[in-house]
Structures are given as structure tokens and as C-alpha cells.
Amino acid sequence: KITPSDLQEDVVDAAYGNLYGYLTSDNCPLNIKEVFLNGSYIRGTMIRPINDIDVFAVIDDSDYYVNGQEPNPQSVLNSFKNYLNNLADYEDKCKQDRPCITINLSKLHIDVMPALRHAGALKIPNSALNGWMFTDPKTHNQGFSDIDKRYNYKVRNIVKAVKRWKNDRELPLPSFQTEVIAMYIFNIFSFKNAEEGIRLWFEHAEGYLNMTMTGTYQHLEQVRNAVRDTKGALDKAEELSDQGDRGAAIKIWKEQLLS
Q1: pTM for the full predicted model
Q2: What per-residue confidence (pLDDT) applies to 24?
Q3: Can you point out the beta strands (E) in 119-220?
Q4: Assuming Cys at both sites, which of 45, 212, 214, 247 could form a disulfide with 220, CB separation 3.0 to 4.6 Å?
Q5: pLDDT the model gives residue 85
Q6: What does residue 29 show for φ and ψ, rounded to 5 degrees?
Q7: How far, in Å, CA of 109 to CA of 15, rounded?
């Protein structure tokens, strides 16, 4: 019920295909070398509703050098915004949402991230928009895909369940970090089914949480407390199930993950 429907995925595919055509067109003045989807949609961990997708648009630094120096990120973002806003399909639908350009469509938001390529490595604008920072989305995507495949594609469903739990509680933990934590955990601990996998996530997540993930210490404590509460509840559910009271155990699971 929380996995996007085929119709919702068709909307994403059509919107991405349309944008891809514009960004790779011979008429595009941005000198874009590569365009690819990123984020939870491409890794299979997106949950309903689909609000936004992430698109990387790769440019070579040599095409944008200013007096031999890397371009100012804001100038690159301005170029992207101006081009997109002048297209009939996106006219007056684009805004800068640092450090990317967001296209607001009726059923979907598309975040277009300029990525500067230098000697094969990618950089994206930093949050202050005064420089570029290294990123490696394809390595993360491949790493997650490898773990997911190892467990017959069950990891993505565990992450979806955790995202639903996080969203229901409005916790200040970016969805991307739930995937990062899952990768840490399932590189060490194995599971046989969804129940084991979800309990493993809550059993070990606190050890991988840090302030970089949440932004502030207050947010970190908020997430930690929520993880502890749910871990305790799922431990109780396991105890009840072992005692033969599966109905009570299922009730706890529903309260924790389907609230």
C-alpha cells in the first residue's frame, strides 16, 4: 500500500523523459554531458505519495571556467533556471531551491541538480552557494543495489517501512539517511524475512545516528528517542509472538508502523 502504483511510476517516467529530452537537446545551451535520475525512485525505496524526483545534469568544468577558475555555483544555477523557464512546458514553473532548480508540475516536483565534472569526479553546489563539494551518487546507488540484490530485493521494502514510520512521526531524519543506516546494518547483520530485517534496523540504528544526519543535537535526540521507543515495542511484540500470542504481537506492529 505504500509502494507507488504503476500509474504513479508512469507519471514519473513521462516527466523525466520530457525533461531528459530538453536537457540533451542540440538546442540546449548548457553543454550538459550526462543526465541521470537519482534518489529513492531510482533505488526502489520511494513511498507514496511521489512528491519529487532528483535529476542530475552533469556539466564539464572546462565549459564553465571563468578566468581559469571554477564557475560560481549561483551563476550556473541561474543559467539552468533561465533555460528551463523559457521552455513552454516549464514556463513560470521553475524556482531555485538551493542548491538545485525545482520544476513544479501539477503532479510532481523535479529537482534538477547541476553537477560539475572534473577529472571524472562530480561536484555539486554547497549549501552556501560559494563553492562546490564532491559527491558520488552512482557509488551509493550501486552499493545499495548490491545489498538489496544480496537479500533478494527485500532491503528496499524494509527501508520503505522505516520511511513510513519516520514520516508518520514527522521525524527530522532525511529519507536518504534511512538508506545509509540500512546499508551499514545489513553489511554486518543478515535477516531471513521482513520482520527480522525491520527489527534489526531498529535494534542497531541508534549506533549509526549522528548529528550530521539530523542537523542539530535536539533533532538527533528526537530521532534517537523514537528509535528506542519503537525498538522496545517490537521487542515486546517478539516476546508475545514467542509466547503464542501472535494477535497481540501483530497489533503492536500495526501501531508502530501503520499509525
Answers
A1: 0.88
A2: 98
A3: 121-125, 132-135
A4: 214
A5: 97
A6: -85, 5
A7: 10
